[in-house]
Amino acid sequence: MEAVSFRYPDGQPALHEVSLEIPAGGAVGILGSNGAGKSTLMLHLNGLLRGSGTVRIGDLLITERTLAAVRSRVGLVFQNPDDQLFMPTVADDVAFGPRHQGCKPGLVEERVRQALRAVGADALMARPPHHLSLGQKKRVALATVLAMDCEVLVLDEPTSGLDPRGRRELTRLLASLPQTRVISTHDLEFTLELCEQVVVLHEGRVVAQGPTRAVLADGDLMERTGLEIPHSLRHSHEE
Ligand SMILES: Nc1ncnc2c1ncn2[C@@H]1O[C@H](COP(=O)(O)OP(=O)(O)OP(=O)(O)O)[C@@H](O)[C@H]1O
Ligand SMILES: [Mg+2]
After folding, report:
1. Which secondary-structure segment (H or E) carries 172?
2. Which atom in ligand 1 lies closest to the alpha carbon of residue 37?
């Protein structure tokens, strides 16, 4: 992203001159307190929102003309799974992406099965998504994007609403994926486990970017941006 600024139609400013570079194949955490601009930033990564400045996915500049190509490269999982799930059954929802990409029925079926297994939701296949619990919906929403086999995964608060085992399994799953992963979260321990790098947003601006441990151990920065030093790092400081 280069010098991206964005204001919502009602005039609310949300991003100011945001510039950042995310290495291909890595996992990067996007941190910041409520309203800092994380979701707004993520929606720019597949062109759902377009402010001033430029966003590039590899060598592909996001413009009106490249949106379709961008969206087949970048899989975005919304913060709220109700924004993602709209088909009558879980299986249909997960099949929607690969079908749209032109996969043959056999491959669609295989992708659906694999994606649901990866998120521990195989048993939910025939259920209507709107009847699922929040954590179940979060898993299925992630599966809809895994099934598309994108190069870049943009995940907005993937652990919120998950039970401890679900969170552990998700951490393991995300750590094992070869794709570039951009993950917004309030879950700093999860960030420590998964992300080599983090970006800290505050009031729509990038205020820090660097190796996760170093950034999260910076007490002044954490205080200033409404975050907290994670427990595991606090301990290592006291010892
Ligand atoms: N649709 C919208 N219309 C107007 N303002 C919005 C809209 N969505 C978000 N905002 C505003 O934009 C700013 C950034 O919001 P954003 O949702 O990106 O924050 P966030 O970091 O994702 O917060 P959270 O941790 O609560 O998810 C906030 O001031 C918010 O009130
Ligand atoms: Mg958000």
Report:
1. helix 164-176
2. 18
Dist. CA 111–CA 116, nearest whole Å: 8
How many Å lie between the centroid of ligand 1 and the Cα of residue 30? 14
CA–centroid distance, 103 to ligand 1, in Å, is 35
SS3 3: strand
What is the model's pTM? Answer: 0.94
Whose C-alpha lies nearest to ligand 1, atom 16?
37
Does the pLDDT at position 235 exceed 80?
no
Q: What is residue 234's predicted lDDT score, i.e. its pLDDT?
A: 84
Kindly indicate whether the domain formed by 2-85+152-238 is annotated with CATH number 2.10.25.10: no
DSSP string, 48-106: SS--EEE-EETTEE--GGGHHHHHHHEEEE-SSGGGT--SSSHHHHHHHHHHHTT--HH
Res. 174: pLDDT tops 50: yes
